[in-house]
Amino acid sequence: MDEENVHQVPRGLTLEQAQFLELQRGQEELSARLDLEKVVFLGFVISQQGVEVDEEKVKAIREWPTPTTAFEVRSFHGLASFYRRFVKNFSTILAPLIECTKKGTEFKWGESTQRSFESIKDELCAAPILALPDFSKTFEIDCDASGVGIGAVLMQDKRLIAYFSEKLSGASLNYSTYDKEFYALIRALETWEHYLLPKEFVIHTDHESLKYLKGQNKLNRRHAKWVEYLEIFPYVIKYKQENINVVADALSRRYALISIMNAKLLGFELIKSQYVEDPYFSPIRLACDKGAVDGYYLHDGYLYKLGKLCIPSGSVRELLV
């Protein structure tokens, strides 16, 4: 029934018919919007390619005048922070600006704050298109830490999903480099928990000591808390290799090979756990806990005989042998 005939409908149905026509208009408008290549939604531009910043908001950031008071810095920070997920190490870049807004300190604008101000503008103007997450694919995270901040990136198939960053303060500023990177990992997991919990994902790290953390007999309170949280996730660690020192000694070359394979074969760590399930290697592995036995010995949790790596039964053996 068209809109002109609404007055002919019995009185009891008039309101319902008007509501129906209103809903129909809304459906037509929605269909028209769905035909658009891009949609602006809550300050973001969404398309088949992914999510990007709204040019109107970025224009306001680009044209923002140099702040002259702490209040103006906070206003700029509030607007810029809306798009922090698009900028790698956002908090680290913005750290000099935050310092000049602290209570009880005199507002000072110098070279470092101006550089920070300009850098964050440039980064937002060149912000990448972030891919939309695909839950049928594997997520990957890569963490980093600096003297004043931590950061992480969430990826799928080498496409960016989001950046995370946080300025360190208080006790965390005094963490060791290893603890800062471990803390960056924990904060990244907390931020993207809703993406990462359902399915196995990959953690990229250049700290091999992370793989030994669970095997330590004694953990300090901080590490124990982090490890407990880490263990709720179905993760696989992949080590980033930079310069591997391959020495002339044949045994050292084998250890270097293990490091390379750790970086390239997901699940290579399974070898260690499969020793106990292998009927041949299980008793040998147990005996080697106390020392070398008949040419067998342990190194970094792997079982060797006369310099040769022992591969237990399983999918990894089928892949390698």
TrEMBL record:
Hydrolase among keywords: yes
One MF annotation (Gene Ontology) recorded for this entry: endonuclease activity
Lineage, opening ranks: Eukaryota, Viridiplantae, Streptophyta, Embryophyta, Tracheophyta
Keywords: Endonuclease, Hydrolase, Nuclease, Nucleotidyltransferase, RNA-directed DNA polymerase, Transferase
PANTHER family per UniProt: RNA-DIRECTED DNA POLYMERASE, ZINC KNUCKLE (CCHC-TYPE) FAMILY PROTEIN
Occurrences of domain Reverse transcriptase RNase H-like (ranges): 134-231
Listed name of the protein: Reverse transcriptase RNase H-like domain-containing protein
Pfam families (UniProt xref): RT_RNaseH
Species: Punica granatum (Pomegranate)
